[in-house]
Amino acid sequence: MIAILITIMVLELHVPHGSDLAALAPLLPVFLTYVLSFVLIAIYWNNHHHLLALTDRVTGGVLWANLHLLFWLSLMPFVTGWMGENHFAALPTALYGVVLLFAGIAYYILEQVIIHGEGANSRLRAAVGGDAKGIISMVLYIAAIPLAFVNQLLSDALYVTVALMWLVPDRRIEARFRQEENGA
Amino acid sequence: MIAILITIMVLELHVPHGSDLAALAPLLPVFLTYVLSFVLIAIYWNNHHHLLALTDRVTGGVLWANLHLLFWLSLMPFVTGWMGENHFAALPTALYGVVLLFAGIAYYILEQVIIHGEGANSRLRAAVGGDAKGIISMVLYIAAIPLAFVNQLLSDALYVTVALMWLVPDRRIEARFRQEENGA
Amino acid sequence: MIAILITIMVLELHVPHGSDLAALAPLLPVFLTYVLSFVLIAIYWNNHHHLLALTDRVTGGVLWANLHLLFWLSLMPFVTGWMGENHFAALPTALYGVVLLFAGIAYYILEQVIIHGEGANSRLRAAVGGDAKGIISMVLYIAAIPLAFVNQLLSDALYVTVALMWLVPDRRIEARFRQEENGA
Amino acid sequence: MIAILITIMVLELHVPHGSDLAALAPLLPVFLTYVLSFVLIAIYWNNHHHLLALTDRVTGGVLWANLHLLFWLSLMPFVTGWMGENHFAALPTALYGVVLLFAGIAYYILEQVIIHGEGANSRLRAAVGGDAKGIISMVLYIAAIPLAFVNQLLSDALYVTVALMWLVPDRRIEARFRQEENGA
């Protein structure tokens, strides 16, 4: 479903009526927001893929925690379109952070539900640990939301910071896979 | 296909033109309807997933019963958008219930077609029994449709009741899986 | 991809502005066209599913014959919207038939490419034979296209006839599966 | 995700208001652009399918190189709509080439990341070699971009040339598959 979401988001990039640079210029903030959202959802896509690969037991609780995450991600095309079309105005920029924050919380809940259901031998628990990177992201989102009413660029800078922080694939989980392959 | 449906539904959340709270406020009923529809479709997604996992024999009849269910679910983005944009007016609220009712009937038919095709040893028959919860949902929808013309809030309350009733995953089917795993 | 296509088609059912029957009434032809297209694409979905299950060798030619079929099916949301919004006017009704005809031809080509590539032992050849039903459908489409300029209802009746003719799942292919299961 | 992309692109073919030929005529350039984009994305779909089938090791780098390719392809519906609606005007025609060029570069990077990660025994390296066809395509795109400001038809001819050049499935990769099947 994350694949569908990241794809339909392009429908918020409305085709302009004119055919010159003047017609394209107002689309620049929409495009930049699109790039940011694409990267942020792509990060979820990759991490979610690794997460499920490390999940041994899918209970009803895991299914609902997963749908809860998808709910918040499903709002990304909407907040992306709203923030982009309003040149990063205060309220849309803050709402963008709210959706990201709740998606982050939902991801954290999903991790905990899986680990809790699997008990002491959970492979995910061993790989993720306390998920410091996830918690730092949420702290940055919490900071970005009120900052949007002071200066939107500060909030945008925080969103970009989170994206850059995650662009490096999760070496803990990758390392875990490699360990298992080597029979460690 | 249910994954695609639940995702494109967000396209009915049209991005508003302004960037302040006044621009966002009229979207509240659309958003609430979106949340309700997301939960109701997610319930179908989960139950449908369990249903197919318990299905041993896919005949032509099962394929068509499944497509019949998908037809009614495919109308959800439309009735969600119509009910939300009209602040839960009478006719859209009733039509929302009509689509839910027919989706419920289609799901029941799908269950029966699978069970009928598999005969006495059907694992699904053992798990689902008479499907009391499905029948109660349909009774509530039948009540909600005329009630929309008396007071829409009553209908909405019934839709929310059905959602809450199903949010608990189907323990009968889960229990059945666990029994089978344990070799019972 | 057919699953995606049949799902996004609902986006052509635009949410009306009013909330009473007068607002809903003009949508009736769009809705009827939607139902017809849903059934016709669902038929392709089922048959295509059976077709690929009987295909043992996927060559480059098969991939392109398949994409050729998907191209014509991808135009269905467009012609569905156009025919529905113009209350089955002559030209849109004819164009609807043109797209169906080319989809039918593309399906026939796909069958032949698969059979040709597999040679004398092709399971598909044994199951499909000369594909009389496919050829009859194409003849009906060829008749429906000019008839749209005489009386659109005649064309619509022919489209419905084809849908009804196919709604019965392809017993030849189903029978073939059963034979194979029984080791015949 | 490429399957989703190629499907939602039809949503850029907006249903016209009238029902006669005069209403349909302005859609011709949009339709032609749609056909061109459908073929170009279908080529990526096929090649990408073969590429992944020859990939033995999916690292974090491969995942991100893949998402980078999907990013550029995700812009295809937008540039397709813009070029089509402006009857192949200069700037939209050039931008269409820019997106194609970056998609081509991203595909090349993806190939190199896979080959680099697999080392000397990479099956992909043996199949693809220096990827002359990919490099020629990029050279043609680089030529087409400035040519759009001289004469758009020249650029369009180059885009069509690339499509025709690739329509023939990649025999090197197909041959490699056949060799492996034969135990060579």
Features of this protein?
0% strand, 184 residues
Structure, described:
- Four copies of one chain form a homotetramer.
- Chain A has one domain.
- Chain A has ten helices and no strands.
- Chain A has helices spanning 2-8, 21-24, 28-53, 60-74, 76-85, 90-118, 123-128, 132-147, 152-167, 171-181.
- The longest helix of chain A has 29 residues, at 90-118.
- The two termini of chain A are 33 Å apart.
- Chains in contact: A-B, A-D, B-C, C-D.
- The A-B interface holds A 1, 4-5, 8, 11-12, 59-61, 63-64, 67, 70-71, 74-75, 77-78, 81-82, 85-86, 89-92, 95 and B 3-4, 6-11, 13, 15-21, 24, 35, 38, 42, 45-46, 49, 167, 169-171, 174.
| Chains forming the largest contact | C-D, 27 and 29 residues
- Quaternary structure of the protein: homotetramer
**How many E-type strands of chain A?**
0
Number of self-contained structural domains of chain A = 1
Give a brief rundown of this model.
The first copy, chain A, is mainly alpha-helical and 184 residues long. Helices cover 76% and strands 0% of the residues of chain A. In chain A, helix 3 packs antiparallel against helix 5 (76-85), helix 6 packs parallel to helix 9 and helix 8 runs antiparallel to helix 9.
